Request: fold
Amino acid sequence: MDADTNNDDQIDIGINSSSSSKLVLYSYWQSSCSWRVRFALKLKGLIYEYKAVDLSKGEQFSPEFEELNPLHFVPVLVDGDVVVSDSYAILLYLEEKYPQRALLPAADPQQRALNLQAASIISSSMQPLHMLSLLKYIEDKFGPDERLLWVQTHIEKGFLALEKLLIDFAAKYATGEDVPLTNL
Amino acid sequence: MLFSYPQKKKKVKKKILYVMSFLIYWFPEFEELNPLHFVPVLVDGDVVVSDSYAILLYLEEKYPQRALLPAADPQQRALNLQAASIISSSMQPLHMLSLLKYIEDKFGPDERLLWVQTHIEKGFLALEKLLIDFAAKYATGEDVYMADVFLAPQIAVVTMRFNIDMSKFPTLLRIYESYKGLPEFLASSPERQPDAAR
Reply:
């Protein structure tokens, strides 16, 4: 089943549903972490089954999903018997198992390291500090003004670091002319 | 060359060129190395790598001896990457000292304490669930891998710094006992670093 044919369908997250697709991606349409993996799958030309997890309805807390990911986060990738959660781990898994259209530049170790760093800045120093569950905690406790200030502070700090990191290397894309891991 | 601060908790592989430690990380020279002003930063000849996750992956590729990611089993490999990522993305950024200072300055010490306990316990609970079916002597089996490299310092630092009750996480606690006997873990501990406070 091609992901493009079911963009309009919200599929139940029943993990026991039969499917002929080898790859299954549990994703929320608005999640930036899920988007990274979707982007990578498209670049690598991989067909996958899309299983929607509606975070706004709390579907990530269902017992079935908890079994897939005890942190209740999307995305989660299921590849046959292998279950991988966390977008960074998924991307590295995909890069190793499906090496076509490499996301980490093979020849240049500095460019390779740069991609890993930029990806890590985003996944560790930015996204965890502006994910919606955390912002809700902050807003509930400290009010909307603090929420706004928090978001601006941490996002700008992260983007400033990325700007400095990439300024000498970026060409058409983040670290050169091809679309590597950083861009995801 | 590895730039580090002794409290910084990421263990590194043995084969590093040599170690220099700086307590102060806001020198202009350091900003050039890492615009986020974080340690660690590894310099390997012409290559400069900041961010512990990126450094460990760089080391794993360039110095494949004593692999930190199990080669044969993709699930175990993925598990290690996930556990490492849970710690580096969902735990450490939420309890790093600069962030806690921001929270304490704005909202007070009680909120700081509650924040720390909430996020650390959430992360450890997730790790407990993730690893419970796979852990043996170490996090994902009988050998030390990437998950352990992240988990060992994480447990050591948060128990010392924030007084977290690890008895709620019996799998993690049991694994931690194994780490305490590892010479490489002990040799890389904060107290044994050149810049450790006397």
Remarks:
- The first strand of chain B starts at residue 2 and ends at 4.
